[in-house]
Write a structure and sequence with these properties.
287 residues; six-stranded parallel sheet; three-stranded mixed sheet; globular
């Protein structure tokens, strides 16, 4: 890792990336794409060491409370977070200043900060977003080698359920000819139903590949799925959107399950829910 003094921390949409780069090693990672203009090795994590100070200053200047989110480019619970605790310090500031939080991760290490997440949710609103891609644990260790297994993430979702913290699951990406099966989808949906998730996000059955991420993905295909790289190249060439041939029926499976179980599914509806700041608790304490 290497540390930097950042000039700012919040995006226009009130999202923050405390770290830049990743050590999870997911074979499909879009953040490796050259378009993000990362000027250091992807696994040499850029650490915004002044992130808590920047966040406290930014929140102090906001006229209205709102939801603060973590960006999807870098997981806030990378391995080095266990030592640095910058994510925890930022969550503490959000809790102390009365803002809401929408946090996205693939790591069960988020449970370390359950006390703060409960505190935020008791005063305003906290939503934990968790990515699930692969029901099969052995396949998960190939596709996402450096992150908590799907089962571990599912167990974390149940902890949030039991503590009254709403969750949203990203079922994405689903890789053609690898995990784009009905069996996989139904396994993940069973986890979502048992964990009583509030919403599910799925952009489609497939993934995106750009310069930088494509080369890494193909390298991993050659290593773990012999012959599949050639099939991808023949079918998709240099396309950005890689859509599964099973896109329509599998999206219907997800859509029908959400409708039947009152789970928010439409993209606009889910993102509107994530952005909505609940001031109920704050108003009650005021009066």
């Amino acid at each position: 890792m290497h540390k930097v003094k950042a000039k700012g921390i919040l995006s226009a949409n009130n999202g923050m990336n405390i770290y830049r780069g990743c050590t999870h090693g997911c074979i499909y990672c879009d953040s490796r794409s050259k378009c993000y203009q990362m000027d250091h090795d992807f696994t040499d994590i850029e650490v915004k060491e002044n992130a808590p100070e920047l966040l406290a200053d930014a929140l102090s200047r906001k006229r209205k409370k709102c939801m603060i989110g973590t960006g999807s480019m870098t997981d806030p619970y990378l391995h080095l977070e266990q030592e640095l605790k910058l994510t925890r310090r930022c969550i503490e500031i959000i809790a102390q200043m009365g803002f809401g939080l929408s946090i996205l991760t693939k790591s069960a290490h988020i449970l370390r900060d359950l006390d703060l997440l409960k505190q935020i949710n008791g005063r305003s609103k906290c939503v934990v977003q968790m990515t699930l891609t692969t029901y099969d644990e052995d396949l998960c260790r190939i596709l996402e080698p450096g992150v908590s297994t799907t089962r571990q993430r599912f167990e974390a979702l149940k902890v949030f359920r039991d503590n009254g913290i709403p969750t949203v699951v990203w079922i994405s990406p689903l890789l053609p000819y690898i995990n784009d099966t009905e069996e996989n989808i139904r396994g993940l949906l069973d986890y979502c139903l048992e964990a009583k998730v509030k919403g599910i996000i799925c952009y489609g059955i497939g993934l995106t590949l750009r310069d930088g991420s494509r080369e890494f993905f193909y390298e991993k295909l050659e290593r773990h799925f012999p012959g599949l790289k050639e099939k991808y190249m023949a079918t998709y060439k240099n396309a950005y959107e890689i859509t599964s041939p099973h896109h329509r029926p599998l999206m219907k499976v997800i859509r029908d399950a959400c409708r039947k179980n009152d789970i928010i599914f439409g993209m606009e509806e889910v993102f509107a829910y994530l952005r909505e700041f609940d001031q109920t608790s704050e108003q009650i304490s005021f009066f």
